[in-house]
Amino acid sequence: MASVNAVGSKSPARSAAQLRIIGAALALFPEHGVSGTSLQMIADHLGVTKAAVYHQFNTKDEIVLAVAEAELARLEAVVAGAEAASTQARARLLVVSGIVDLAVDSRRTTTTILSDPVIVGFFADHHTFFDVMSRLRRLLMGDDVGADARVRTAMLLAAISGAVMHPFVVDLDDDTLRTELLRLARRFLG
Amino acid sequence: MASVNAVGSKSPARSAAQLRIIGAALALFPEHGVSGTSLQMIADHLGVTKAAVYHQFNTKDEIVLAVAEAELARLEAVVAGAEAASTQARARLLVVSGIVDLAVDSRRTTTTILSDPVIVGFFADHHTFFDVMSRLRRLLMGDDVGADARVRTAMLLAAISGAVMHPFVVDLDDDTLRTELLRLARRFLG
DNA sequence: GTCTATAGTGCGATAGAC
DNA sequence: GTCTATCGCACTATAGAC
Asked: Is B121 exposed, middle or buried (0-12, 13-18, 19+ CB in 10 A)?
């Protein structure tokens, strides 16, 4: 779970100033949505002016893309780690527990951002996104392309990502949530 | 599944013109997000001007609220139907299959709208939302308030809502998706 | 790398004619 | 109920001083 600079990752190296902006956007996007977050909000969050933000990124779209790729990179690291496993069963367990960790770690953040219409639009023709998704699909489903496997896998991923921000679990602490999620996810996998 | 004017529902009666605006917003919000959808887009979608839209709703917020309440009303109808069941097991099955129907019927629409930060903010102090949620919780969990039951229920609801718009199932037809979803959801319930 | 200042655009919302 | 026209404002983005 340490920070990994995965081989297949193409995210350009980010300066410290750029990372601060990405962090601010990461905090504001889930609360207001991507479209509802202005550069003024990001600048205010960092205690600087809009012009200082524009010195790091030429457009708002570049910031959105950087945030999306940063989140995608976290998922890619989990997938890459699982691909290195010795058996398929062990790989499946690694990817599920990695995604549980990711989801619990960010709770509201990750899922909200990745499901924002603007981000979805950015990923619609993003080759790295398709690459990670097909590797994830291969890890979880193997060569089974039947309706059963696809619905089952989609439900599993949606259940993990969506449950962490559900009102029913807001007052559970991270450890309890992580343990229950992993246990139920493994049971669902069968 | 017919249109139901549920007893507990407080949504004000809507004129035909208002319903057309709600329909346009319902189509545009998932694609651009609530903040990313302007009144100009809604007006263009209907072939009228902004002023005509403002004649039906005084503010954009009123339109957003109307859309949110319309979606909530669909869920409330499912909950009310299940509450009328003779046994608890039958009620649970009714609520799960009702939510599956809802999710498949709208695919991208409902979940995207209900998870939009602006809508979430509107529901944050919306008494009807809390009422429907607690009734849903009672139907699915009974008096069990343990971490296991809460995580399990949150996963079930998130799995159904989230799976319908997952890339893995985009090319499945509605009937197949509905059948598989219901079967797997019942299996997960145990 | 940060600032002030500003250009240009689209937004939500209103007034008043038909 | 829809229109044209407009107001005031916040937005993205840029120019140029420090």
From this structure: middle
| Chain segment A108-121, per-residue pLDDT in tens | 899 999 999 999 99
By percentage, how much of chain A surpasses pLDDT 90? 90
Can you give the pTM of this predicted structure?
A: 0.94
pLDDT-derived band of residue A12, with 50, 70 and 90 as boundaries? Answer: confident
State the nearest residue by CA to the C1' of C5: A51
| Per-residue pLDDT at B6 exceeds 50 | no
Tell me the Ramachandran region of residue B15: left when phi exceeds 0, alpha when psi lies from -120 to 50, beta otherwise.
beta
| Gap from B53 CA to C16 C1', Å | 17
Distance linking the first and last C-alpha atoms of chain A:
25
Nucleotide nearest to A56 (CA to C1'): C1
Amino acid identity of residue B189, one-letter, is L
Q: How far is B69 from chain A (nearest CA, A)?
A: 18
